[in-house]
Design a protein that fits this description.
By secondary structure, the protein is of the alpha/beta class. It has two domains: 2-170 and 317-469, FAD/NAD(P)-binding domain (3-Layer(bba) Sandwich); 173-314, FAD/NAD(P)-binding domain, CATH 3.50.50. Helices cover 30% and strands 24% of the residues. It has helices at residues 2-31, 73-86, 108-111, 125-131, 179-183, 194-204, 225-240, 260-270, 326-329, 371-389, 451-469; strands at 64-69, 90-95, 100-102, 121-123, 134-136, 140-144, 149-152, 157-159, 162-165, 169-171, 210-215, 246-251, 275-278, 282-286, 292-296, 302-306, 309-312, 316-318, 341-344, 349-350, 356-358, 363-364, 399-407, 413-423, 428-431, 444-445. Strand 15 (292-296) and strand 16 form a beta hairpin. The longest helix is centred in the first third of the chain and has 30 residues, at 2-31. The chain starts with a helix and ends with a helix. The protein binds flavin-adenine dinucleotide.
Amino acid sequence: MKSDNNTLKSRRRLVLLATAALGAGLVPSLGRLAFADSDGDDDDNHYEESANTSFTLANTGLNAKIVVVGGGMAGATLAKYLRLWGGSGVAVTLVEPNASYTSNIMSNLVLSGSRSLSTLGYSYGSLAAKFGVTVKQAFVTGIDSTAKAVLLSDGTRLPYDRLVLAPGVEFMNAYGLTQSDYAGTTPHAWQAGPQTAELARQLAGMSNGTFVMTIPKAPYRCPPGPYERACIVADYLKTYRGAASKVIVLDENASIQAERETFTTAFGVTHAGVVQYEAGVTGIAIDPVTKVVSYLDAVGTPRTINAQVVNPIPPHRATGSSAGGWLAGAGLNNSADGRWCVVDVLSYESTAVPGIHVIGDAASCGLPKAGHVANQEAKICADAIVRLLAGQQPDPAPVANSACYSPITASTASWLTAVYQYDAVNRKMVVAANGGNPLGAAPTASATVSNKNYRNMSTWFNTLMGDSFA
Ligand SMILES: Cc1cc2nc3c(=O)[nH]c(=O)nc-3n(C[C@H](O)[C@H](O)[C@H](O)COP(=O)(O)OP(=O)(O)OC[C@H]3O[C@@H](n4cnc5c(N)ncnc54)[C@H](O)[C@@H]3O)c2cc1C
C-alpha cells in the first residue's frame, strides 16, 4: 500500500511537471499563430506555422492507448493536448475519414464571396509531425465497448484503454426533404463543404427575389450562426441585387437564440425592409422542385412563400445516433430524445458507457454547440483523462471560455463572450458571475457593431484554429 502511494505520488509529480513545462513551451508557439501582414491587419487566411517548432514530449510515466474519433474542432484539440499533457507514453490515434478539415466557422462568408472555401482548410500534418498523433484516415463503423475496441471502415479493429468520440452532428430528414435534396437542390450548408459552394452558387444566381431560410428548435450548432447568415445574405442581396430583395427567416424557436438585441437591430434597422424575421413557426414544408415553402405562423395561420432559393437548416443529432447507427449501437445516445450523448462535465465521460468520453457538438452537457466551446471541452477532457490515468480524480472546478464574432455586414461584426464555471449543486457548467451579474447570467454581447470587431474576428479565428490544429 505504501509503495502504491509512492508510485502514485511520483506519477502525480511527473504529470504536474510535464504540464507545467509543456504549458510554458506552448506559449512562444501560439504567439506566432496569428500574424500581421504589411498593412498591420490580421491575415484573413491562415495561422503561420513555424517550420522548426516541435516538442520533445516528457516521459510522465503514463502509458495508455487512446483512440479519438473525429478530427474536427473537438477531436483535433483533444489529440494534441493529450500528447502534450499525457507525455510520450500516451499513444493517441485520431480516426478521421477526410484528409483535411474544413472549418464551419467563417463559412457563412463564403456565401457572399468574402472568403473562399480553400481558406478554411486545415491539415492534420502538424498534429502528426509536431505532436506524434497517429492519424488514421477511415471512419468508425462500430464500437465494442466490452472488448474495448473500435471497428473501422477498412476492417481494422483498434483497441483502446480510453475512447473519445468527437464526431460532430448529422442532419435529419425534415420539412419533406431527404439527404439527397440537401446534397442537391436544397442545401443546408450547415456543414462547410460542397453544400456551402452550392448555396453560394444559388445565391449568386438570384435576381431581385426571395431567399427563405429556416432555423430548427434549439439545441443546434452555433446559436448565433443562422442569424449571422441572414445578415450576410441580406447585405449581399441588397448590395448586388437591389433593395427589393427579401430574406425571410422562419425560426421554429420562440425568439432569437443569441445576441437578441444585436440581431433585432440588424434585422429591423441595418437590414430594414430586406430581412423579414418570423419566430415560433411550425409545420414547415418545402417543395425542393418548385421551391414553394408552406408553414403555420406563430398564431397558426397557414402561409405560403414562392422562394427563389431555399436554405433549410434541419434539426441535427450526434453523428451515428440514428436507429442502427454506430453510436446508437453502443448505447451512447442517452439523452431523453435519443439525439445526444449525456456526459459528466468534469470528465466528459459518458453517463451511459464508462471509459468512453464524448466532446463537441455530439455531447449534451449544457454548453452551447460551438467550435470555441468544443476546443475548451477538449482541454477539460484531456486534463481529466491524464489525471484518471495517473490515478487521480478530474479537476473538481473546471473553467471554460467562449468567444464568437458575427458579421452583420461585409465590413462590420458583433461579438459574444462568456466564461463558464462548474456549478457543483446542479452538476453543470454555467455562465460565471461577472461584473455584478450572478452565476448563470447571460453571456456578454458587444455594445456596438463595428469594423474593429470585424478585424478582431480574424485574430480570434486564426488563434483558435492554430490552437486546435497547429
Ligand atoms: C455556418 C456555421 C458557422 C459557425 N460559426 C461558429 C463561430 O463563429 N464560432 C464557433 O465557436 N462555432 C461556430 N460554428 C460551430 C462549429 O463549427 C461547431 O460547433 C464545431 O465544428 C463542433 O466541433 P466538433 O469537433 O464537435 O464537430 P466537427 O467540427 O463537425 O468535427 C466532427 C468530425 O468528426 C468526423 N466524423 C464524423 N463521423 C465520423 C466517423 N464515423 N468516424 C470518424 N470520424 C467521423 C467528421 O469528418 C469531422 O471531421 C459554426 C457552424 C456553422 C455551421
